[in-house]
Amino acid sequence: xxxxxxxxxxxxxxxxxxxxxxxxxxxxxxxxxxxxxxxxxxxxxxxxxxxxxxxxxxxxxxxxxxxxxxxxxxxxxxxxxxxxxxxxxxxxxxxxxxxxxxxxxxxxxxxxxxxxxxxxxxxxxxxxxxxxxxxxxxxxxxxxxxxxxxxxxxxxxxxxxxxxxxxxxxxxxxxxxxxxxxxxxxxxxxxxxxxxxxxxx
Length: 201
Description:
With 201 residues, the protein is mostly helical. The chain has helices spanning 9-54, 62-76, 81-93, 103-106, 114-120, 123-131, 138-145, 169-179, 186-200.
């Protein structure tokens, strides 16, 4: 009869512990590489958005201003840091879909024709399609798609809004106050106006 091999529990534990530690290091390496890939993708998308803005002095820096103000409003609303980050990322990339809009339409000095307006209104959908393939950007894709929608559903791309020139600062604030609770979420408007008031002091 074959002799029974004695097992050393301490040696088994050491081997198991070493394998566990190696698995933890592997998981940490995978996590680190995943975050590096996310950053690289975000930087590439931001590069595209910056290239688009660089072609038009009027919009240069617009996305960064939208991102910064959106983050401040999200913080003022008491949203989690993860949501604040998401809002900031979506703000940076909200107009990336304008890559699919001809430059002649983007830079047209006067009102857009009906046909041109149809093309312009497609930019949120194009932007959402650009970032949608990246799983970690799924929520931002929804924000990008709907960044021209209104509280009452009267925006676009899923509804219609007439094109108009930008408003002066005081007129824009008055419009926000008037539309709060109608076409705009009154809680978000109050947070935005509060942020602007604090920054103007």
